[in-house]
Amino acid sequence: MAYSIILDAGHGGSDPGAVYNGRQEKDDALRLALAVGEILQNHGIDVEYTRTTDVFETPLQKAMEANQSGADLFLSIHRNSFPTDNEVSGVETLIYDLSGLKYQMAQDINDQLEAVGFVNLGVKERPNLVVLRRTNMPALLVEAGFINSEVDNQLFDENFQDIAQAIAAGVLDTLDSQGIVKDEDYRVQVGAFRNRRYAERLLNELLEEGFPAYLASRLSAFYERAGMMQTLNGETGSVSIIGAVSPQGGDFSEPVTQNTKRFVRCFWGLDKSLAYSRHFPAIHWLSSYSEYLNDLSGWYADHVSPKFVDYRNRMMALLNQESSLMEIVKLIGGDVLPDDQKLVLEIAKVIRLGFLQQNAFHKDDTCVSMEKQFKMMDVILYLYKTARNLVAMGQPMSVLKAEGIFEKVIAIKYDVANDNLQLLDLYKKDIDDFYNRVIAKNA
Ligand SMILES: [Zn+2]
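A: This is the predicted complex of the input protein with zinc ion.
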C-alpha cells in the first residue's frame, strides 16, 4: 500500500489565522498545502487533506480526522506572525518532541526552504499544540515564513512553486533515506568531492547545461505532440503548437529556452530593444528562424512567385550585412563607410521600416496579402539594384538620399491600398525616374 500523508492547511473559515495588511494566513496555507499535495501525489504518495476549501474546523477536529484517515504522516502548513511587523523573518518547523522520523523530516524541510532563500529558524519542540499532541502518527507543522514580513511575503509570492517543491522534497528525502518510500527516479552520481566548493561548482555547471536531464525529455514530450494526426472520425489533420518561453531578463541562453529550441523548428525571438524603439512586431530577424523554408518553398513558388524564396534570401543577406556594418558604425561612426556600404545600411532601413515593421492599427497594414508582400520586396530590391548602379558610377549617397526615394518606398505599405496593388507597378517607374534625374543632374 502506498504511503499516505494527510495535509492540513492551517486555520480556515471564520478563523483567518494571522493577518497582515489584508493578507490572511488561511489563504496562503491552503494554496501552499494544495501545491505540496500535488507534488507528493506525483511522486506516488496517497494524499488527503483536512480541507480543500475555506472552511473552519477546530485543531482537535483536524487531529481526529487525521487519526480516522489512518494516514502515515500529518503535515500542517501555516504562516508565522510576530508581534511587531517586519522585525523577524524565516521558516521554522514545529514538532511534538525532537526525536524520530518527524525530527529528521523537519530538519530536511527547513534545509530545503533555506535553499529557496528563507532564513532557517530551526526545528522547535511544541508539545502543547493540539494537532501535534493529539495525532497518532508523526506530525509536523511548517511555518512557511512570517506573514507580517515583507521579505518573506515577497519570497512566498515570487518563489511559490519552489517553496511547495522544497517542502515536498524535504518530506520525500526523509522517506527515501529511511527506505520507506523509493522514488521512481534513477539517480546518477556525477562527482564526489571533499571540498564543498568544488561540488557546488560542478552543480552549477550541470544546471547551466540544462540538468536535471528530465527537462529536455519533458519539453520534447510536449512539442512532439505537434504534427500530422488522425481525427476521431478518421480524417487527417494537423496540430500546431505555438509555445511562449519567457526567460528572465530575455536571456536566451538559459536551459528552458535552449532545450525548447532543440525541439521546435521555428523560432520567433522577441527583442526588448525593438519593443523599446517601437518596432512591432518586435520579432528580431537575426535571432528568429524557420527550418520550414525548404518545405514551403514549393508552395511559395506555386502560389506567390518562383522568385519569392530568392527575394527573401537576398533581403536576409542585406539585413545580415547591416548587422556587421553596424559594429563598425558603433566604433567609428557611419561617415567613413564607402558609399556602397552606406547604401546597404539605407536599404536595410527600408526593409526594416517599410517591410518588416507592421502596424496592426492601420487598415491596410494590419493584414497584408502574400501578393502585396512579394511586390513590395520586388520594389525594394529594384531600388537597391538601381541605386547600386548609380553608386558604381561614382554617385555619392548624399545625392541619392536627397531625392527622397528611400522615404517614398518606406511608406509603400501605407500608400498602396490592399485592393489597389497595380499602384505598386508605378514605383518601379518612379525609381527609373530617380535614376534618370540623378544622372541628368550630375552628368
Ligand atoms: Zn497558524
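Residues 308-332 form the longest helix (25 residues). Residues 10-11, 17, 25, 78 surround zinc ion (CB under 6 Å).
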